Amino acid sequence: MQLFTIEQTRNFMGKKGRFVILNAVVHLSLAISAYAQVVAAQERGTTRVFVVDSVTGIPLAGVRLRIDRVAAEARTDTIGRAVVRPASESGWLYATKLGYKPQLIVLADPRSEIVIQLMRLPEALEQINVESDALPAWLLRNDRTRNLSDARRSGRLLLEEDIVRRNRFTLSDLLGTVPGLRTDGEFVYVPRAVGSSIQAPCQGVIVYLDGVSLGEVENVNRVAHPRDLAAVEVFLGAATLPRVYARPKAGCGVVALWTK
User: Fold this and answer.
1) How far apart are the C-alpha atoms of 187 and 245, rounded to whole Å?
2) Could you write out the DSSP letters of every residue in the chain?
3) N or C: which end of the chain has fewer CB within 10 A?
4) Which range is least confidently modeled, 13-22, 49-58, 150-159, 220-229?
5) Is the pLDDT of residue 82 over 70?
6) Which regions of 14-88 does DSSP assign to beta strands (E)?
7) Distance between CA atoms of 87 and 205, rounded to whole angstroms?
8) How confident is the model at residue 117 (pLDDT cuts 50, 70, 90)?
9) Are strands 206-209 and 212-216 parallel, antiparallel or unpaired?
10) Which residue has the higher pLDDT, 71 or 204?
11) Dist CA 243 CA 254 (whole Å)
Protein backbone atom coordinates (compact mmCIF):
# COMPACT_ATOMS: atom_id res chain seq x y z
CA MET A 1 0.00 0.00 0.00
CA GLN A 2 1.44 3.30 -1.10
CA LEU A 3 1.36 6.11 1.42
CA PHE A 4 1.31 9.79 0.44
CA THR A 5 2.89 12.50 2.39
CA ILE A 6 0.81 15.46 3.53
CA GLU A 7 2.40 17.63 0.82
CA GLN A 8 1.62 15.06 -1.91
CA THR A 9 -1.98 14.78 -0.70
CA ARG A 10 -2.36 18.57 -0.73
CA ASN A 11 -1.00 18.77 -4.27
CA PHE A 12 -3.27 15.95 -5.48
CA MET A 13 -6.39 17.49 -3.91
CA GLY A 14 -5.47 20.87 -5.37
CA LYS A 15 -5.26 19.43 -8.87
CA LYS A 16 -8.44 17.43 -8.43
CA GLY A 17 -10.25 20.46 -7.02
CA ARG A 18 -9.24 22.57 -9.98
CA PHE A 19 -10.46 19.84 -12.34
CA VAL A 20 -13.81 19.62 -10.55
CA ILE A 21 -14.25 23.40 -10.68
CA LEU A 22 -13.28 23.53 -14.36
CA ASN A 23 -15.66 20.68 -15.14
CA ALA A 24 -18.47 22.46 -13.30
CA VAL A 25 -17.80 25.71 -15.18
CA VAL A 26 -17.93 23.89 -18.54
CA HIS A 27 -21.22 22.20 -17.68
CA LEU A 28 -22.67 25.49 -16.42
CA SER A 29 -21.68 27.24 -19.64
CA LEU A 30 -23.30 24.50 -21.70
CA ALA A 31 -26.45 24.72 -19.59
CA ILE A 32 -26.62 28.52 -20.01
CA SER A 33 -26.11 28.20 -23.77
CA ALA A 34 -28.85 25.58 -24.05
CA TYR A 35 -31.21 27.74 -22.00
CA ALA A 36 -30.48 30.75 -24.19
CA GLN A 37 -31.29 28.70 -27.28
CA VAL A 38 -34.59 27.57 -25.75
CA VAL A 39 -35.52 31.15 -24.86
CA ALA A 40 -34.56 32.35 -28.35
CA ALA A 41 -36.71 29.62 -29.89
CA GLN A 42 -39.63 30.61 -27.71
CA GLU A 43 -39.24 34.32 -28.55
CA ARG A 44 -38.72 33.79 -32.28
CA GLY A 45 -41.56 35.54 -34.04
CA THR A 46 -42.33 37.78 -31.08
CA THR A 47 -41.96 41.54 -30.91
CA ARG A 48 -41.20 43.53 -27.77
CA VAL A 49 -43.17 46.76 -27.61
CA PHE A 50 -42.27 49.79 -25.48
CA VAL A 51 -44.81 52.64 -25.30
CA VAL A 52 -43.99 56.13 -24.00
CA ASP A 53 -45.53 59.59 -23.88
CA SER A 54 -44.37 61.49 -26.97
CA VAL A 55 -43.55 64.64 -24.99
CA THR A 56 -42.31 63.49 -21.59
CA GLY A 57 -40.92 60.10 -22.59
CA ILE A 58 -42.62 58.55 -19.53
CA PRO A 59 -43.55 54.86 -20.03
CA LEU A 60 -47.29 54.32 -20.43
CA ALA A 61 -48.98 51.44 -18.62
CA GLY A 62 -52.23 49.84 -19.73
CA VAL A 63 -51.89 50.66 -23.42
CA ARG A 64 -54.05 48.31 -25.48
CA LEU A 65 -52.26 46.63 -28.36
CA ARG A 66 -54.36 45.00 -31.06
CA ILE A 67 -52.60 42.89 -33.65
CA ASP A 68 -53.66 42.07 -37.19
CA ARG A 69 -55.39 38.65 -37.39
CA VAL A 70 -54.77 37.93 -33.71
CA ALA A 71 -57.86 37.56 -31.53
CA ALA A 72 -56.19 38.26 -28.17
CA GLU A 73 -54.94 41.74 -27.37
CA ALA A 74 -52.00 42.72 -25.18
CA ARG A 75 -51.54 45.52 -22.65
CA THR A 76 -48.37 47.23 -21.54
CA ASP A 77 -47.17 46.64 -17.98
CA THR A 78 -46.30 49.25 -15.35
CA ILE A 79 -43.12 50.22 -17.20
CA GLY A 80 -44.73 50.43 -20.63
CA ARG A 81 -43.60 47.06 -21.96
CA ALA A 82 -45.44 44.23 -23.70
CA VAL A 83 -44.61 41.25 -25.88
CA VAL A 84 -46.77 40.49 -28.91
CA ARG A 85 -46.68 37.77 -31.53
CA PRO A 86 -47.85 39.15 -34.93
CA ALA A 87 -49.58 36.67 -37.20
CA SER A 88 -47.46 37.85 -40.12
CA GLU A 89 -44.48 40.05 -40.86
CA SER A 90 -46.60 42.45 -42.92
CA GLY A 91 -49.55 43.06 -40.62
CA TRP A 92 -50.34 45.96 -38.32
CA LEU A 93 -50.39 46.86 -34.66
CA TYR A 94 -52.93 49.33 -33.21
CA ALA A 95 -52.13 51.10 -29.92
CA THR A 96 -54.83 52.90 -27.90
CA LYS A 97 -54.98 54.52 -24.48
CA LEU A 98 -57.58 56.79 -22.91
CA GLY A 99 -56.51 60.42 -23.29
CA TYR A 100 -54.06 59.65 -26.12
CA LYS A 101 -54.36 59.69 -29.88
CA PRO A 102 -54.55 56.11 -31.26
CA GLN A 103 -51.63 55.06 -33.40
CA LEU A 104 -51.41 52.47 -36.14
CA ILE A 105 -48.05 50.85 -36.88
CA VAL A 106 -47.60 48.93 -40.12
CA LEU A 107 -45.11 46.14 -39.55
CA ALA A 108 -42.87 46.68 -42.56
CA ASP A 109 -40.15 44.23 -41.56
CA PRO A 110 -39.70 41.59 -38.90
CA ARG A 111 -38.49 43.56 -35.88
CA SER A 112 -37.65 42.33 -32.41
CA GLU A 113 -38.47 45.66 -30.76
CA ILE A 114 -40.75 48.63 -31.47
CA VAL A 115 -40.90 51.92 -29.57
CA ILE A 116 -44.26 53.70 -29.84
CA GLN A 117 -44.69 57.35 -28.89
CA LEU A 118 -48.32 58.22 -28.16
CA MET A 119 -49.46 61.85 -28.37
CA ARG A 120 -51.67 63.15 -25.58
CA LEU A 121 -54.97 64.64 -26.71
CA PRO A 122 -55.83 68.25 -25.82
CA GLU A 123 -57.51 68.48 -22.43
CA ALA A 124 -60.89 69.44 -23.90
CA LEU A 125 -60.89 66.35 -26.12
CA GLU A 126 -59.52 64.13 -23.38
CA GLN A 127 -62.53 64.89 -21.19
CA ILE A 128 -64.93 63.46 -23.76
CA ASN A 129 -62.64 60.81 -25.23
CA VAL A 130 -63.89 57.28 -24.67
CA GLU A 131 -61.62 54.36 -25.44
CA SER A 132 -63.26 52.35 -28.22
CA ASP A 133 -62.82 48.89 -29.66
CA ALA A 134 -63.37 50.31 -33.14
CA LEU A 135 -60.44 50.15 -35.53
CA PRO A 136 -60.05 52.85 -38.20
CA ALA A 137 -62.77 52.49 -40.80
CA TRP A 138 -60.28 52.29 -43.66
CA LEU A 139 -58.58 49.36 -42.00
CA LEU A 140 -61.84 47.48 -41.51
CA ARG A 141 -62.78 47.99 -45.17
CA ASN A 142 -59.35 46.96 -46.41
CA ASP A 143 -58.82 43.76 -48.36
CA ARG A 144 -57.39 41.30 -45.82
CA THR A 145 -55.03 39.86 -48.42
CA ARG A 146 -53.38 43.21 -49.10
CA ASN A 147 -49.83 43.62 -47.87
CA LEU A 148 -50.01 46.96 -46.07
CA SER A 149 -46.25 47.27 -45.64
CA ASP A 150 -45.67 46.85 -49.40
CA ALA A 151 -48.47 49.33 -50.13
CA ARG A 152 -46.97 51.90 -47.81
CA ARG A 153 -43.45 51.33 -49.10
CA SER A 154 -44.65 51.85 -52.68
CA GLY A 155 -46.35 55.10 -51.68
CA ARG A 156 -49.87 53.82 -52.41
CA LEU A 157 -50.90 53.83 -48.77
CA LEU A 158 -50.47 57.10 -46.92
CA LEU A 159 -51.04 57.18 -43.19
CA GLU A 160 -51.49 60.41 -41.28
CA GLU A 161 -47.78 60.79 -40.55
CA ASP A 162 -46.98 60.25 -44.26
CA ILE A 163 -49.48 62.95 -45.24
CA VAL A 164 -47.96 65.39 -42.73
CA ARG A 165 -44.45 64.57 -43.91
CA ARG A 166 -45.30 65.30 -47.55
CA ASN A 167 -46.53 68.75 -46.51
CA ARG A 168 -48.91 69.42 -49.42
CA PHE A 169 -51.54 72.14 -49.15
CA THR A 170 -54.06 70.74 -51.63
CA LEU A 171 -55.37 67.22 -52.21
CA SER A 172 -54.39 67.30 -55.89
CA ASP A 173 -50.79 68.13 -54.93
CA LEU A 174 -50.78 65.30 -52.39
CA LEU A 175 -52.15 62.74 -54.86
CA GLY A 176 -49.63 63.93 -57.42
CA THR A 177 -46.88 62.49 -55.20
CA VAL A 178 -48.34 58.97 -55.47
CA PRO A 179 -46.53 56.81 -58.07
CA GLY A 180 -48.77 56.08 -61.05
CA LEU A 181 -51.14 59.01 -60.55
CA ARG A 182 -51.14 62.23 -62.56
CA THR A 183 -52.92 65.51 -61.99
CA ASP A 184 -54.24 68.01 -64.48
CA GLY A 185 -55.06 70.94 -62.29
CA GLU A 186 -57.60 69.54 -59.85
CA PHE A 187 -58.38 66.43 -61.95
CA VAL A 188 -56.63 63.16 -60.98
CA TYR A 189 -56.14 60.39 -63.54
CA VAL A 190 -53.99 57.41 -64.49
CA PRO A 191 -51.93 57.96 -67.68
CA ARG A 192 -52.85 54.50 -68.96
CA ALA A 193 -54.35 51.32 -67.62
CA VAL A 194 -51.82 49.42 -65.52
CA GLY A 195 -50.62 46.34 -67.37
CA SER A 196 -51.99 47.56 -70.70
CA SER A 197 -49.88 48.05 -73.80
CA ILE A 198 -52.23 50.80 -74.99
CA GLN A 199 -50.65 54.17 -74.46
CA ALA A 200 -53.91 56.12 -74.70
CA PRO A 201 -54.75 58.10 -71.54
CA CYS A 202 -56.86 56.24 -69.04
CA GLN A 203 -59.98 57.78 -67.57
CA GLY A 204 -60.03 59.54 -64.23
CA VAL A 205 -59.87 57.57 -61.04
CA ILE A 206 -62.94 56.80 -58.95
CA VAL A 207 -62.83 58.72 -55.66
CA TYR A 208 -64.27 57.36 -52.41
CA LEU A 209 -64.72 59.45 -49.29
CA ASP A 210 -65.15 57.43 -46.07
CA GLY A 211 -66.44 54.48 -48.07
CA VAL A 212 -68.90 56.46 -50.22
CA SER A 213 -68.28 56.58 -53.98
CA LEU A 214 -68.10 60.07 -55.48
CA GLY A 215 -67.36 58.79 -58.99
CA GLU A 216 -64.94 60.72 -61.17
CA VAL A 217 -64.37 64.08 -59.53
CA GLU A 218 -63.51 67.10 -61.62
CA ASN A 219 -62.04 69.02 -58.69
CA VAL A 220 -60.66 66.81 -55.91
CA ASN A 221 -59.67 69.86 -53.90
CA ARG A 222 -63.34 70.38 -53.12
CA VAL A 223 -63.58 66.91 -51.57
CA ALA A 224 -61.13 67.19 -48.67
CA HIS A 225 -58.04 68.94 -47.40
CA PRO A 226 -54.90 66.92 -46.57
CA ARG A 227 -55.00 68.03 -42.93
CA ASP A 228 -58.41 66.35 -42.52
CA LEU A 229 -57.26 62.94 -43.75
CA ALA A 230 -56.31 59.96 -41.62
CA ALA A 231 -55.35 57.74 -44.57
CA VAL A 232 -55.26 57.63 -48.35
CA GLU A 233 -55.43 54.35 -50.28
CA VAL A 234 -54.62 54.15 -53.97
CA PHE A 235 -55.40 51.14 -56.16
CA LEU A 236 -54.18 51.11 -59.77
CA GLY A 237 -55.57 48.57 -62.19
CA ALA A 238 -58.47 46.14 -61.85
CA ALA A 239 -56.23 43.36 -60.56
CA THR A 240 -55.39 45.26 -57.38
CA LEU A 241 -58.92 46.34 -56.49
CA PRO A 242 -60.48 44.90 -53.33
CA ARG A 243 -63.89 43.40 -53.98
CA VAL A 244 -65.65 46.31 -52.30
CA TYR A 245 -64.26 48.71 -54.94
CA ALA A 246 -64.76 46.43 -57.95
CA ARG A 247 -67.29 48.57 -59.81
CA PRO A 248 -67.79 49.60 -63.44
CA LYS A 249 -65.29 52.25 -64.59
CA ALA A 250 -63.02 51.51 -61.62
CA GLY A 251 -60.49 49.56 -63.67
CA CYS A 252 -58.17 52.52 -64.14
CA GLY A 253 -57.87 53.24 -60.45
CA VAL A 254 -59.50 54.04 -57.15
CA VAL A 255 -58.51 56.66 -54.59
CA ALA A 256 -60.05 56.01 -51.16
CA LEU A 257 -59.92 58.97 -48.78
CA TRP A 258 -60.49 58.42 -45.06
CA THR A 259 -61.04 61.39 -42.77
CA LYS A 260 -60.05 61.66 -39.13
Assistant:
1) 20
2) -----HHHHHHHHHHHHHHHHHHHHHHHHHHHHHHHHHHHHHHTT-EEEEEEETTT--B-SS-EEEETT-SS-EE--TTSEEEE--SSTT-EEEEE-TTB--EEEE--S--SEEEEEEPBPPHHHHHH----SPPPHHHHHS-TTS-HHHHHHTTSEEEHHHHHHHT-SSHHHHHTTSTT-EEETTEEE-SS-TT-S--SPPPBPEEEETTEEEEE-S-GGGT--GGGEEEEEEEESGGG--GGG--TT-SSEEEEEEE-
3) N
4) 13-22
5) yes
6) 47-53, 64-67, 74-75, 81-84
7) 33
8) very high
9) antiparallel
10) 204
11) 12
Helix intervals (H) in 131-229: 137-141, 148-153, 160-166, 171-175
Tell me the pTM. 0.60
Helix (H, G, I), strand (E, B) or coil at 92: strand
Max CA distance (Å), the chain: 111
Residue of 222, 240, 102, 243 whose CA lies nearest to 159 = 102
Closest to 170 in 3D by CA, of 189, 188, 153: 188
Q: Which of the residue ranges 15-29, 103-117, 143-157, 246-260 would you say has the lowest mean pLDDT?
A: 15-29
Question: Cα(80)–Cα(121) distance, rounded to whole angstroms?
Answer: 19
Yes or no: say if 210 and 137 are a contact pair by the CB < 8 Å rule: yes
Give, in order, the Cα–Cα distances in Å from 40 to each of 6, 84, 125, 238, 239. Answer: 51, 15, 43, 43, 40
